[in-house]
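Morning run. Coffee first, then this:
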Amino acid sequence: MSDLLTRAADFIRLPNSPNAKPDVLPGGEGLRCTVTGKRYPLRGGILHLLDAPPNLTKAQQSLDSPIMAWFYDRFRGFLTKRVGVPPFREEVEMTQAALGIAPGDAVLDLACGHGNFTVEWSKLAGPNGLVIGLDISETMLRRAVTRVNKAGLKNVLLVRGDALNLPFRRGSLMKLNCSGGFHQMPDLPRAIAELARVAGPGASLTTATFARISNDPQEARKRKIEARYNNTLRFIPLDELQRLLETAGFTDCTHHIPGGWFGYVSAQRT
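And here it is:
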């Protein structure tokens, strides 16, 4: 893990020290802030970069439950098929067509959950690449650890962190993906602004999210689901999402919603 942390340290900036590269602790036990001296442990395959316990929304709390995390991991394909999401392999190929991960790339997989996309990006980035999977849920990250270890991957670092305060150096990342996270974030404009901050000029961004369109035929059902979760799980209007991305400095935004429920968006950082 020492080599992996050493590579990742070039990109990581610890909470409250945005301009200081962290030190790698002996034996790859974690990172140390060179400003405050605080240590951030690598424990159970997860680098813990939260300074305080997170304030999870209702939707985030549901996926942080071990039972729900297991259920989502086990039955994601079945559930997503019911709402018109393409098969996983097709999702990967469609996303990669816009993201364009190449061998040696450094990739951020935001809201990586149980790591299904993280593993795919790792294979594309190759042994000289680096994939950082970040999620706020330790329960989901534990499942990602199992998936990464089972695949025998050595180029993946799993991080417990906050999408609203990304622990990365400004302009350092060129490939950014967030599959299935935007609809759960309590402050989406801030999350997008953080992605724009850490994205380098010309960086590619892809995202998939529960979405709605104008004159949406499923609007009534989507409103019922939002009400059930007190609007902490949203169906993001795709035209609104495009405006947020453009305001943050992304261009060439494209989007589509193939099955009526899940929208796919890609953009480039100017």
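The longest strand covers residues 199-212. Good start to the day.
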